[in-house]
Amino acid sequence: MNRENRPVSREKRVGTGGGSVRRRGSGLGGSTGGPVGHSGGYSDRGGSGFNAGGGGTRNRAPVGKPKILSFVVILIVMYLIITQLGGKNNDTQNQGQGNNAPSSQTSTSTPWQPSEPGNTTSDTGAYALDNSVSELARSKRTVLQGNGKDTATVMVYMCGTDLESRSGMASSDLNEMLDADISDQVNIIIETGGTQKWQNSVINSSTNQRYRVTSKGLEPLEKSLGKKSMVKPGTLTDFIQFCEVEYPADRYILVFWDHGGGSLSGYGYDQHFQGDSMTLDEVGTALKNAGCNFDIIGFDACLMATLETAMVLEPYADYMVASEETEPGIGWYYTGWISALSKNTSIPTLDLGKKLIDDYISKVKQETPRSQGTLSLIDLAELKGTAPEQFKAFAKSTGELLDGEQYQVVSDARSSCKEFSKSSKLNQIDLIDFAQKLGTNEARAFAKSLSGSIKYNRT
To answer: What is the DSSP string of 281-344?
Structure first.
């Protein structure tokens, strides 16, 4: 198909917030039976870049032992997971990344400040990238040739759901990809599925399909894969392996496109296979079985910038791009960062991530100015090196507070910290904010190590 015969969707949405522009986390309540998200979302505070799932109820009353016990369980589970942060190390640094030199694990820029309850943290423009890297960070697995010699394969796992069937949001993002200046060194491969209706004349909703996005339009690769659940690990594994075999590259980028439910329910909702999602352990299974090392894994979905998500992705990726917050329906803006990657296929990952985040925040401001928007670029290699020991000390010291019956200290820290998608009862909080408010030496050190792994954030 040629560029003029591209998928046709409704005109670009220009909204004023909660009106006609649906949020990525919404539409999955009662009638649809889906597992994630809610339109009310989080509405009044900014974010640092990391959530923690759980944390109990949000009130300032003394917390009884049963609720504290559940909090202790969460700490124990997180500790058991974080000690498994792993994957293969190698001795080569990621050339061309601009962040090779050992440095302090502390972030050199602070893109956010904790806000008081009820106040909105406003974006004040682009921040400086944190190019530092801790000497404890593992080596990057993606090694670039540099000087524009690299090839790139971008895998977009596009589970359309009600975002497409009701509002054509996937079609809009496909058109944004088609608007990019795509280099011959960049392959953009899409798997489509998971929606009852595509709002364009090209893609078939009765079967999963694969396309390559080219400068001339959508090129069909697999027109009839059968109707497969987009939230089953095997479907994702097959897609990744297909892309790696058919379009080998120096750097791989994976984008999860759909709804997100954070650490509790994970990624995705398939309208053909309702009542299911791809939980984080299933995401890990899919990535492990695929056997591909990624430069970036990103979530164009709500609420996925959690520590648990980062820990699951770390063995398979060097960086994560995700949002603590619910995303407005427009989602990421694809034209800019794909064009930047095509212009210089050796662009440092930090610069590419910054471009993606800046464009996203700009579009949210322009098109849905009342929506909350935040997006972060997380260095998973640094997180691997700095977080486990700090978290161990943090969990131990917090346990000692509880053993000493200082419940009010923990309760107050929890009740006053940043919270996301409160109306959906996910109870996801900003982990850095919580640790800082807890105020122990171990908590502050843990917050510092987490901040160091956040290389760029806009709110």
So the answer is: HHHHHHHHHHT--EEEEEEESTT--BHHHHHHHGGGEEEEEE-SSPPBTT---HHHHHHHHHH-
